């Protein structure tokens, strides 16, 4: 999530988060290529890894053909192909595998999950972040079981082709009764266009009105403004108390403690007008309060606390309240939003909450 999305990490945690990536980069530098890559230049546009929506991509067909050829090649040929792939190529294959697993969840087609496992068998796990492999493999295993298949059977060929460390990851993912939230932090959300995946914040979530469709509507409003790209949706989230003065006002704190459910939408600015995506963020928290009075209390705290320079707008409707926060991640620099500009979202958000 962008900005102050509720994650509190110290220097030690940041170092841990970067360790796997640093190790992969070092392995890539040591790697000796076996020749030109058969998928050189095949890339996906930004957003292709979003699991809360499905967008068709031409690269899928190219990589599907590559995976089919890799699977049918002999062992020595597969070794040469794998060695020819650059780190960028490996991540393209990883993203293809993730997308195939996601597609299998949406369609119930276990063959797509099998193709995800086959794609993963081409990965040199030392030259990528192994956690990304775990996520893609877990989606494939989950999709197989959801479709009525047997994950261990679906993944058997990929496990045989994989190198030992990778085979171990695939074997652990090819099990029945996978808990997506526990394993990789996602929750399946049913929508009118089919199942999608939200990140799971692991907090209490028992709203009387389902919030996910409203959150998807807010995401569409944010992106329809053509200023931001939504890069994450999280269910069972917490609204950080700082944005509504719940950390200093006991009445608001009590109202926030009675919230029945919260979903968050995180957005980064599009790279226009000199705005760098990592420098600013727009986050929206959608909460269902215990009562309309509690929702009004939460809304009344918006803008009374928070970080200096951040812009906060609350939109309460009945028991629901959306809290929009625009801020700059750089200390001492203001966001490009103002209270007046952020108010442009209020009418559409109010309509969705009604």
Helical residues, percent = 40-55%
The total domain count is 2
Mean pLDDT: 90
What is the level-2 CATH architecture name of the largest domain? 3-Layer(aba) Sandwich
Which topology of the largest domain does CATH recognise? Protein Transport Mog1p, Chain A
Strand content: 5-15%
What is the terminal separation in angstroms? Answer: 27 Å
Using the CA coordinates, give the radius of gyration: 22 Å
CATH class call of the largest domain: Alpha Beta
Largest beta sheet, briefly? Answer: 7 strands, mixed
Structural class: alpha+beta
Determine the oligomeric state from the structure. Answer: single chain
Number of strands: 7
The geometry reads as elongated
Uncertain regions: pLDDT < 50 for 5+ in a row? 1-17
Q: What is the H-and-E element order?
A: HHHHHHHHHHEEHEHEEHEEHH
What is the count of helical runs? 15
Biggest sheet, strands in spatial order? 1-2-3-4-5-7-6
Keywords summarizing the entry:
354 residues, disordered N terminus, alpha+beta, Protein Transport Mog1p, Chain A, 7 strands, 14% strand, 45% helix
Overview of the structural elements:
The chain has 354 residues and is an alpha+beta fold. The protein folds into 2 domains: 31-175, no CATH class; 187-353, Protein Transport Mog1p, Chain A. It contains 15 helices and 7 strands. The chain has helices at 11-30, 59-72, 75-84, 87-107, 110-120, 130-146, 151-154, 156-161, 164-173, 180-184, 212-224, 250-257, 292-300, 339-342, 346-353; strands at 186-189, 196-200, 228-235, 261-269, 280-288, 311-317, 320-328. The chain has a 7-stranded mixed beta sheet, with helices on both faces. Helix 4 packs parallel to helix 6 and helix 11 (212-224) packs antiparallel against helix 15. The longest helix has 21 residues, at 87-107.
């Amino acid at each position: 999530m962008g900005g102050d999305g509720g994650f509190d990490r110290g220097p030690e945690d940041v170092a841990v988060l970067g360790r796997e990536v640093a190790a992969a980069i070092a392995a890539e530098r040591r790697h000796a290529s076996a020749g030109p890559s058969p998928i050189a230049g095949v890339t996906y546009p930004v957003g292709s890894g979003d699991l809360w929506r499905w967008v068709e991509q031409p690269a899928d067909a190219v990589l599907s053909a590559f995976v089919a050829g890799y699977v049918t090649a002999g062992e020595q040929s597969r070794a040469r192909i794998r060695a020819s792939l650059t780190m960028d190529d490996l991540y393209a294959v990883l993203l293809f595998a993730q997308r195939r697993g996601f597609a299998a969840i949406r369609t119930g087609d276990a063959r797509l999950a099998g193709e995800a496992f086959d794609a993963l068998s081409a990965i040199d796990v030392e030259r990528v972040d192994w956690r990304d492999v775990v996520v893609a493999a877990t989606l494939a295993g989950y999709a197989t079981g959801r479709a009525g298949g047997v994950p261990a059977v679906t993944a058997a060929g990929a496990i045989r082709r994989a190198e030992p460390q990778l085979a171990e990851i695939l074997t652990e993912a090819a099990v029945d009764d996978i808990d997506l939230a526990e394993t990789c932090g996602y929750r399946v959300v049913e929508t009118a266009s089919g199942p999608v995946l939200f990140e799971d914040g692991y907090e209490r979530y028992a709203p009387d009105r389902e919030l996910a469709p409203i959150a998807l509507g807010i995401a569409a409003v944010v992106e329809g403004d053509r200023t931001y790209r939504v890069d994450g949706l999280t269910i069972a989230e917490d609204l950080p108390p700082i944005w509504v003065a719940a950390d200093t006002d006991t009445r608001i704190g009590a109202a926030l403690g009675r919230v029945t459910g919260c979903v968050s939408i995180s957005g980064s600015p599009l790279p226009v007008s000199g705005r760098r995506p990592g420098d600013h963020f727009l986050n929206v928290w959608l909460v269902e309060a215990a009562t309309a009075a509690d929702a009004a209390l939460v809304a009344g705290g918006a803008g009374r606390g928070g970080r200096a320079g951040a812009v906060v707008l609350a939109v309460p409707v009945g028991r629901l309240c959306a809290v929009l926060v625009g801020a700059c991640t750089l200390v001492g620099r203001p966001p490009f939003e103002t209270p007046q500009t952020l108010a442009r979202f209020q009418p559409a958000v109010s309509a969705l909450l009604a």
